Amino acid sequence: MDMSEFRPAKELAAKRASRFTNETVDYAEARTALLAEEIEARRHLTRLAEQRMRLPPGPVVEKDYRFNDENGREVALADLFEKHDTLVTYFWMFGPQRERPCPMCTNFLGGANGNGADVKQRVAFKIIGRSPVERQRAFAIERGWRDLDFVQTVGDDYARDLGLLDRTGNEYPGFTVYQKDGDKVRVFYNGEMPADAADPGQDPRGAVDIAPLWNILDMTPAGRGTDWYPKLNY
Questions:
Q1: Which of 61, 136, 185, 201 stands the most exposed, by the fewest C-beta atoms within 10 Å?
Q2: What is the torsional sign of CA 115, 118, 123, 124?
Q3: Helical axes 103-122 vs 133-143, angle rounded to 10°
Q4: Contacts (Cβ under 8 Å, ≥6 apart) of 105
Q5: What does the alpha-carbon distance between residue 137 and residue 142 come to, in Å, rounded to a whole number?
Q6: Is the CB of residue 186 less than 8 Å from the CB of residue 61?
Q7: Each residue of 76-115: pLDDT tens digit?
Q8: How crowded is the C-beta side of 116, counted as CA atoms within 13 Å?
Q9: Nearest CA-CA partner of 178 in 192, 188, 167, 163
Q10: pLDDT at 1
């Protein structure tokens, strides 16, 4: 992205035309200033995406991780790519010890399901869990998810090696993108935002936030709030 071609954000924001004729001067000034910041944020998100795409070749996955797919077959990580050269994975917190899956993971997957058919036109997209595929699919049917593909880890090496399962059995979500490199599989991108990186008053969260729920609530007067979380049922 060549920044030299960009006009200043404030100059562009000054072209704002309100659709509401009765807004106050104070609101108009504040909204125009916010628009300038939104333009800058959009540009920063573009720079992040471009920087991510320029990552050098990531580490080769050397261990032969195995999975059970929805057809009852045991497959390798490379098999999950199917016809694509890129594989997007989300490890959700729905291990066999859980009576019900994590509400936060469930919320994210609800949004991902709505985009699943489109995403899979460009890349392979697999939801990975420690519970049997049949159990994962049963919950998906309950939620009305039709466009997500589930696999089960064979053993716990995958979850442990990626830091998604600790010694006491606690699970953590994980977002990992893999890339084919000939007959090798490399890690392209792994969500690595540590919990300690959370800013004061905020829950741990990554960047860019890919959960539709939070993006929508961030557009409201009260925002995300500090003590509200999604539930499986209301």
A1: 201
A2: positive
A3: 90
A4: 90, 92, 93, 94, 173
A5: 9
A6: yes
A7: 999 999 999 999 999 999 999 999 999 999 999 999 999 9
A8: 20
A9: 188
A10: 65
Compute φ and ψ for 35, nearest 5 degrees.
-60, -40
Burial class of residue 59 in the structure, from the number of CB atoms within 10 Å of its CB (0-12 exposed, 13-18 middle, 19+ buried): exposed
Q: What is the pLDDT of residues 128-152, one digit of tens each?
A: 999 999 999 999 999 999 999 999 9
The residues that bridge with 180 in the sheet, in sequence order, are 185
DSSP character string of 146-186: -S-EEEEESSSHHHHHTTSB-TT--B--EEEEEEEETTEEE
- Strands 124-129 and 149-153 turn out to be parallel
> Is it the case that residue 3 has pLDDT exceeding 80?
no
Cβ–Cβ < 8 Å for 80, 124: yes
Residues 6+ apart with CB under 8 A from 76: 64, 65, 66, 67
Name the residue type at position 37.
E
Rounded CA Rg of the chain: 21
Question: Mapping DSSP to helix (H, G, I), strand (E, B) and coil, where does residue 94 land?
Answer: coil
* Average pLDDT, integer, range 10-32: 96
Record the tokens describing residue 216, joined without a space: 């929508």
Dihedral of alpha carbons 224, 227, 230, 234, sign:
negative
